[in-house]
Write a structure and sequence with these properties.
- By secondary structure, this protein is an alpha/beta fold.
- The protein has two domains: about 5-110, no CATH class; about 205-245 and about 265-445, Nucleotidyltransferase, domain 5.
- It has helices at about 20-25, 40, 50-60, 65-80, 80-90, 95-110, 125-130, 135-145, 160-170, 175-185, 205-225, 295-310, 335-350, 365-380, 385-395, 420-425, and strands spanning about 5-10, 15-20, 230-235, 240, 270-275, 280-290, 320-325, 350-355, 405-410, 430, 440-445.
- Strands 3, 4, 5, 6, 7, 8, 9, 10 and 11 form a nine-stranded mixed beta sheet that branches.
- Helix 4 (about 65-80) packs across helix 6 (about 95-110), helix 9 packs across helix 10 (about 175-185) and helix 12 (about 295-310) packs parallel to helix 13.
- The chain is elongated, with a radius of gyration of 41 Å.
Length: about 450
């Protein structure tokens, strides 16, 4: 059975015969029985039979517009009665050939084919025209989602298309889900996530910018003098065990991990503290197993100085530390300053200048985007089943700019709640800077 789209009507005698044109549409060789001209029907061996077969074979290689034009050319060549004769030979209907003649005449007259002027036909009216008040009602429903008091006992649930349709039916608008969906699209509504573009309001943006300029000047001065500049911070804590790690990795089969990330099923909780050498583009990560305290932060910096700092910068007496404004190395932490004095400056005879980034600006700390981000990319999609695996991924982190990383394990216990009084802080050999004194200070060895 030939599909309806591939059949045309050829008038032969009193009735209309359905003639299949599937071969013409797909480009195959037409059947010899498709020609319905009187000579091919009555005289099987007449001289023009081969010409008719060639015409049908050529038509099979053309598109619809080209077939119309070719049939029009043949009909004009025959003259009177040519449209009917070409229709019987090719299987095209007379209306199609007549339309091709009009197109051919316009092509000869204007040099281009006429464009089709599609008439606007009637159809089902838009829902907004059928219900003029429905747009206002829908916008009111969507605006009510943010109404109500946060302390109230009832809040609006998120309005899905089904719930909106149900609420519209209660108001007398009987619509389907698809209709409501299309209306929302026409009203420029769509399901969207939050876009984090608005920066938090700073109480003093000029002071924040002043601190950034001061950090840049201090970095420049220390680098020109050949003094070490390090950026420190604590990375996100990691559960060690067969747990899912976000990301993808090349493998033949996906790795099977635990369904839930329960801390009770973990081997331990790893606390990576990173020290990034800005001048040498080298990272040093101490993986602790205790708490993220100021004592642990200072201990990690001390291990970096023992293993790499004093070797890479022999004979120096000053050091610049770039740190965030919170955490174990926060600008308001008394224990951070006290441990830095007692366990680093006095021990190694170094004068340490500390510059804290303003609150909410930790992403500009070099250790974040030059060290921690690369480590995360390196173990992306890989479960950290043991501390050895974690240390291996940290040590294997490299970049095209020459980053190298060393990682060590610290099994020490650093309890929380270290008591440091203001009297202890006043006894420190600490000097605040004139610019943003709460964020910039220098601690020297005790005399």
């Amino acid at each position: 059975m030939v599909p309806r789209a591939f059949a045309v009507g050829v008038r032969t005698g009193p009735g209309l015969v359905r003639q299949p044109l599937l071969s013409l549409c797909v480009g195959a060789m037409p059947n010899s029985e498709q020609c319905r001209c009187p000579r091919c029907v009555s005289e099987p061996d007449h001289p023009d039979k081969q010409h008719h077969r060639e015409m049908r074979a050529f038509l099979a290689t053309l598109n619809q517009q080209q077939r119309r034009l070719f049939a029009a050319i043949e009909a004009n060549r025959v003259g009177r009665g040519g449209v009917k004769e070409v229709a019987m030979i090719t299987g095209l209907c007379t209306q199609t050939i007549a339309f091709g003649q009009r197109q051919l005449a316009a092509l000869l007259r204007d040099g281009e084919l006429p464009k089709k002027n599609r008439e606007v036909v009637g159809g089902r009216p838009l829902t907004e025209r059928k219900y003029p008040a429905i747009a206002a009602a829908l916008e009111e429903m969507l605006s009510d989602e943010v109404a109500g008091s946060p302390e109230g006992t009832q809040r609006w649930v998120r309005s899905s298309v089904a719930k909106l349709t149900s609420r519209l039916k209660e108001r007398g608008f009987h619509l389907s889900h698809d209709t409501v969906w299309k209306m929302l699209k026409r009203m420029n509504f769509s399901l969207r996530t939050h876009v984090r573009k608005r920066r938090g309001l700073s109480p003093d943006p000029e002071r924040r910018d002043e601190q950034f300029r001061y950090i840049a000047s201090e970095r420049r001065a220390f680098c020109q003098a050949g003094l070490p500049v390090i950026s420190v911070d604590t990375k996100k804590k990691e559960l060690i065990g067969n747990f899912r790690n976000p990301g993808k990795a090349w493998c033949r089969r996906p790795r099977e991990v635990n369904e839930h990330d329960y801390a009770s099923q973990a081997e331990c909780l790893a606390v990576p503290f990173g020290t990034y050498d800005v001048m040498k583009n080298r990272g040093y990560v101490v993986v602790g197993m205790s708490h993220n305290t100021s004592e642990f932060a200072v201990s990690s910096i001390s291990r970096w100085w023992q293993d790499e700092g004093r070797i890479g910068y022999p004979g120096v007496s000053e050091l610049l530390i770039l740190a965030d404004g919170g955490g174990g190395n926060g600008s308001r932490s008394k224990s951070w300053r006290w441990n830095l004095q007692e366990k680093f400056c006095n021990r190694y005879g170094l004068a340490v200048t500390v510059c804290h980034y303003p609150p909410g600006c930790s992403k500009w700390n070099p250790v974040e985007h030059r060290l921690f981000s690369q480590i995360t990319n390196n173990w992306s999609g890989q479960p950290l089943r043991s501390l050895g695996v974690m240390l291996g991924y940290i040590r294997g982190t490299t970049t095209t700019t020459g980053l190298t990383v060393e990682a060590v394990l610290d099994e020490g216990i650093y309890p929380k709640g270290q008591k440091v009084t203001w009297r202890d802080v006043d006894a420190l050999n600490l000097t605040t800077h004139e610019t943003c004194s709460e964020w910039n200070y220098t601690i020297r060895p005790a005399t």
